[in-house]
Amino acid sequence: MTSRFALSFPRGVAVGKWTREFERRHPHVELVVAPSADPVSALMAGEADMAFARDAVPDDARHLIPLYAEDVVLVMHHEHLLTLEKKLHLADLEDEPRVEGEPSEALMRRIAEGEGIALWPASVAKALRRKDVVAVRLEDGEQSSIGLTWPREGQHPLVDEFIGIVRGRTAHSSRNPEVAAEQAATGKRAGKSASGTGAASKAGAGKSGAGTARPRTTGKPAPRAARGRKRR
User: Fold this and answer.
1) Quick check: helix, strand or coil at residue 72?
2) Is 115 in contact with 90 (CB distance < 8 Å)?
3) Could you give all domains of the chain from N- to C-terminal order, each with its CATH number?
C-alpha cells in the first residue's frame, strides 16, 4: 500500500471529519492536507491526489462527484442601510459598489471599512467573519457547489477508499476495495472447500453402498408365533 496521500481544499470547506476517519483506518499512510486558493490547479500540477473543488465541472482530465451546495450570501458592513431590510433580493444590490477579488482577510477589512459589499459562499463568509461585518441570505441568491475531483489518469490507489469515507461507508462495507477483495478471496476458498467435501462425500457413499449386503426377501409373510392351548 502507498505511504502518502495528499488532499487539497478551498477556504470554507471543513474536511476534518473525513481526514480523521482516514487516518484512523490508515495509520501508516502519511496524509497531507493543504488549503489552496485553486485546488484544481494544485491537483493538475501533481501537488494533490484528490481535491475538494468549488463550482467545478468534470472534464477530459478529471472525474468529479458532487457533494453538497450552499447559499451565496451578501457580505456587508453591519451598519449598512441594506441591513434594515427584512428580505433582500439581487435587484436590491444593483447600485451598490462591490469589493471584488478572491475572498480574504484583506478584502474583509475593506468591507468592514465600508468600501462596498461582496457575494461569497456562506462558509467562506463564516470562516472570515468579523464583528463589524454581517452575512445575509438573499431570497433569490445563487448557490455554490462543492465536489470531490481526481485525475482520470494515474488514479491514486486510495481514491476509492476516501470517496467511501466521504459518502459514509463503514470500514467493513463490501464497497470498500480492501473488504471486497478479501470477501472475494474468502468466497473462492469456501467454494473450493465445499467442492472437495462434496466429492469426498459421494465417494464415501459409493464405497459404503458397495460393501453392504442387502437382505433378501422371499415374498412370503413371516410365520406367526404359535398360540398356546387353552387349559380346561
Assistant:
1) strand
2) no
3) 4-69+145-182 (3.40.190.10), 70-143 (3.40.190.10)
Number of residues in the chain: 232
The mean pLDDT of 102-119, rounded to a whole number, is 96
Q: Give the span between the Cα atoms of 18 and 165, in whole angstroms.
A: 6
Three-state DSSP class for 86?
A: coil
Rounded to 10 degrees, the C-alpha dihedral 189/194/199/204 comes to 130
Residue 222 vs residues 48, 214, 225: alpha-carbon distances, Å: 91, 18, 9
- Rounded Cα distance, 218 and 232, in Å: 39
DSSP sequence for 1-68: --SEEEEEE-TT---HHHHHHHHHH-TTSEEEEEE-S-HHHHHHTTS-SEEEEES----SSEEEEEEE
Cell, residue 217: 426377501
DSSP β-bridge partners for residue 72? 121
Question: 3-state DSSP call for residue 232?
Answer: coil
- Per-residue pLDDT band for 169 (boundaries 50, 70, 90) equals confident
Q: Are 62 and 168 in contact (CB under 8 A)?
A: no
Separation between Cα atoms, residue 155 and residue 163, nearest integer Å: 13
Q: Assess whether pLDDT exceeds 70 at residue 211.
A: no
User: Each residue of 115-164: pLDDT tens digit?
Assistant: 999 999 999 999 999 999 999 999 999 999 999 999 999 999 999 999 99
- Cβ neighbours, 10 Å, residue 192: 10
